[in-house]
Amino acid sequence: MANKRLGTQTVKFDNPPSIVATASIVGPKEGQGPLRKFFDEILNDELWGEKSWEKAESKVLRETLNKLISSSDKKTSDINYVLAGDLLNQCISSNYAIRESNIPFLGLYGACSTMAESLSLGSIIVEGGYADNVICVTSSHFCSAEKQFRFPLELGTQRPLSSQWTVTGSGAALLSSTGNGPYITQITTGKIIDMGIRDAHNMGAAMAPAAADTIYKHFEDTGGIPADYDLIITGDLGYIGMEITNEILIKQGCRITDRFNDCGAMIFDRERQDTHAGGSGCGCSATVFAGYLYKEMLSGNLNRILFVATGALMSPTSIQQGESIPGIAHAVTIQKTRG
After folding, report:
1. Alpha-carbon distance 95 to 85, whole Å?
2. Which helix (H) or strand (E) holds 18?
3. What is the secondary structure of 146-200 as a DSSP string?
4. Domains in the chain and their CATH numbers?
5. From residue 275, how far is each of 33, 142, 154, 173 by CA, in Å?
6. CA-to-CA distance for 78 and 290, rounded, in angstroms?
7. Is 162 exposed, middle or buried (0-12, 13-18, 19+ CB in 10 A)?
8. Which of 28, 49, 213, 311 could bridge across to 112 with cysteines, CB 3.0–4.6 Å?
9. Would you state the pLDDT for residue 152?
10. For the residues of 128-153, what is the DSSP string, one character each?
């Protein structure tokens, strides 16, 4: 019997996994933003000594993984699984980054929701007794993402105001069956929601209905209220997606406005850095979580958060064929205490 389920989409853990360490590396633009002091390393340039954007992204993920292990009390041989994903075709950033690690690997693709997806699945693996230590890591790179999904930078194509700036960076978290927290106590797995948005330059609008649906279902399943959380933070809706999500939830009688923020709205300075609608990419929620949110929880400034990473499940092929953009969002409850 699935006695750990709450409602239709939520799981509550009896023995919550502990997040025992995180690591984050970001690009130069991210390092100039409001959260710069929270990141573990800031690159001087986007290529980082590599010959292509894709190789640079893979290196960022690999070095974030290495930084995470070295900052913890674990050895590589202690890690039972790595759960990783990125935005590039067949998750090549993750595959090439982890190929020499000698750690069992599970590749994931949830677009920009991948960090919450990996934390969700990693928690199930640890809490189920199938592993003691699991690493969850994702990456993205502005230049490689633009090249794949929109236009190579060399074309100098003008970006519309609804577009978001893909974060160059990688964030990682180490989940363990032992540790002093913060703990992952609940997860709410999202459904694919497609409202017919076809504009690849307006991902916030495509993802917002999925974010609202998962947040609403989380409170419906758990019987909780927004005031139970210090912060409800979405993955990378940006300013447009945040506004739409808030409007949807208010119409449903769920008011989160006073404790609602978004990783894509936080990572860049909207006025000074000209990133239009905010940040995006797998590395957006991953670096904000590993760099900022985790450290704020350790310092006691945040005690309980609902981390809701969002993803636009599109591909270059689907966009070229005129398909709409399905959205997904997964929610993870993270708190200082087990109960």
Report:
1. 8
2. strand 18-26
3. HHHHS--GGG-PPPPTT--EE--EEEEEEEESSSS--EEEEEE----B------T
4. 1-339 (3.40.47.40)
5. 11, 12, 18, 27
6. 21
7. middle
8. 311
9. 59
10. TTS-SEEEEEEEE-HHHHHHHHS--G
What whole-number distance in Å separates Cα of residue 309 and Cα of residue 108? 14
Say if CB 123 and CB 132 are below 8 A apart. Answer: no
Q: Which pLDDT score, from 0 to 100, does residue 141 have?
A: 86
Query: What are the structure tokens assigned to 57, written together?
Result: 């992204």
Mark out the alpha helices in the chain (DSSP H runs): 28-31, 53-71, 92-98, 114-127, 142-149, 203-222, 238-251, 263-266, 270-273, 282-287, 294-298, 316-320
pTM over 0.85: yes
Q: Which two tokens stand for residue 278?
A: 């905010």
pLDDT of residue 166: 84
Rg (CA), the chain: 18
Q: What's the token pair of residue 195? A: 């409202």
Q: Give the N- to C-terminal CA distance of the chain in Å, as an integer.
A: 22
Q: Take residue 234 and report the two structure tokens written for it.
A: 């979405």
pLDDT at 45: 93
The Cα–Cα gap between 235 and 289 comes to 9
Ramachandran class of 332: left when φ > 0, alpha when ψ lies in -120 to 50, beta otherwise: beta
Q: Could you tell me which of 294, 291, 310, 271 has the C-alpha nearest to residue 31?
A: 291
> In angstroms, rounded to a whole number, what is the distance separating the alpha carbons of residues 172 and 82?
10
* pLDDT given for residue 146 in this prediction: 73
Locate tokens 């609940």: which residue?
Answer: 186
Cβ partners under 8 Å of residue 70, min gap 6: none
Neighbouring C-beta atoms of residue 272, cutoff 10 Å: 10
The two three-digit tokens of residue 11, written as one number: 């799981």
Structure tokens at 212: 């609202």
Q: Which residues of the chain have pLDDT under 70?
A: 1, 143, 145, 147-162, 164
CB of 231 closer than 8 Å to CB of 302: yes
Q: Which of 236, 238, 204 is nearest to 112 (CA)?
A: 236
Pick from 244, 229, 219, 218: nearest CA to 335 = 229
